[in-house]
Write a structure and sequence with these properties.
By secondary structure, the protein is an alpha/beta fold. It is 26% helix and 31% strand. The longest helix has 13 residues.
Length: 277
């Protein structure tokens, strides 16, 4: 059992929980994830580790309440316990050697995954420009944490209610055309966002790393559900990723695979919630 040490509602759909998990915290690195099962009836759901404290022995997970399992997880409060937390899983992020300046781009809840990347690089002495995109001011998360983990933070909103009005790709292109010389760009968020970030960086030959989120079940490479096409070869995101060279990822195939079960999901009556999908 894994005790919830802290719980914070970041916006209407996003929840942060800090979990007592000393063995995981001891080895966790940016890019890795855990698989959580809230109770005996819960599904096994992968969540990227948003932060960790080795001395305290805790990890932080941020998630959206979008289905039965995350609804059940959201019902737990500080002091309650989670049945299973398996990890750290996946490969830790490998950064460009001797990088001097890196752009870390996050979209929506993907900023919870981009944040530890920026923090790690910033603590390594790298100049980090963090670009964080949201639909509107009301759903911005981790602004203070991101600001403390980078050299410069650029908040982007689709409606212009906070910071730069436009997409993260617009701001990234503006910075590059303005003379920013990036050794690497790290993009984490919705698949279309990562695809278009790669389209911006490719003409400049900037190495671009993306964190992929395919359908995943076991997290150990046995089920094959998380396979993605990278450089024309099949890769398994749970053990060979989740980070890959964005210029080699077949994003169109990934989007098709991620939408495979949309009809079934729409028709499914959940036995856990009495009908709530």
């Amino acid at each position: 059992m894994y005790k919830i040490l802290r719980k914070e509602k970041l916006n209407e759909q996003c929840v942060l929980i800090e979990i007592d998990a000393p063995y995981i915290a001891r080895k966790a690195e940016p890019g890795q994830f855990v698989i959580i099962r809230s109770d005996e009836l819960g599904e096994r759901v992968p969540f990227t580790i948003s932060d960790y404290d080795r001395e305290k022995g805790s990890i932080v997970v941020i998630y959206q309440i979008i289905g039965a399992s995350t609804m059940r997880l959201a019902e737990l409060e500080e002091g309650d316990s989670i049945l299973d937390v398996a990890g750290p899983l996946g490969a830790a992020t490998e950064y460009v050697e001797n990088a001097k300046r890196v752009a870390v781009v996050g979209g929506g809840v993907g900023c919870a995954i981009a944040y530890p990347q920026a923090k790690k690089l910033f603590n390594m002495g790298v100049q980090v420009d963090m670009i964080a995109g949201f639909r509107s001011k009301d759903i911005i998360i981790l602004e203070n944490e991101m600001r403390a983990a980078c050299t410069e933070l650029h908040i982007c909103t689709d409606d212009g209610s906070c910071g730069f009005k436009g997409f993260v790709t617009d701001k990234l292109r503006e910075l590059i055309e303005g003379g920013a010389q990036y050794d690497e760009v790290i993009a984490i968020g919705p698949v279309p966002m990562m695809k278009f970030v790669c389209a911006v960086t490719k003409p400049y030959g900037i190495k671009t790393l993306v964190s992929l989120n395919p359908i995943m079940l076991d997290g150990t490479g046995m089920c094959g559900c998380c396979r993605v096409k990278v450089g024309g070869k099949t890769k398994y995101a749970c053990v060979e990723g989740p980070d890959f060279d964005g210029h080699e990822v077949d994003f169109d195939e990934l989007m098709r695979r991620n939408s495979t079960y949309k009809e079934q999901e729409a028709d499914h009556v959940c036995r856990l919630t009495g009908g709530v999908r």
